[in-house]
Amino acid sequence: MDTCTSPCTILELVLTEQTCVPYAYGNYSFQTIFDPYQHRYLVIVIGWNGHHRIHHCLLHLEYRDGIIWIHHDTTAAGITEPLIAAGINAAMIIRTSPPQSMAVPLEQDYMHKDGRC
């Protein structure tokens, strides 16, 4: 990472770039929400699906103690690789939830190996 570019600046740039990619399932828009004082970063999807309002958190990241915490990531490709490509050291990134591709349905969390709940 360039020593002149702070991790927070890189986060803002990468997340803003993510909003340039059209949403895969409809005509929705993105909003970035950056809190420069508490170093929290969100990307949300908003719009309408017929008569149903869509308001969904796509990404939620936080920069704390020199670490980028990925609290929520529902992007198709994941946010980790774009962060690394932008100059963030992989050792500075911690994912607090599994990637979307590895997510286990909630009901499986409560089942015994023999199938009982």
UniProtKB/TrEMBL annotation:
SUPFAM superfamilies: XisI-like. It holds the Pfam family XisI. Gene3D superfamilies: XisI-like. It comes from the Bacteria. InterPro entries: XisI, XisI-like_sf. This is XisI protein. It comes from Herpetosiphon gulosus.
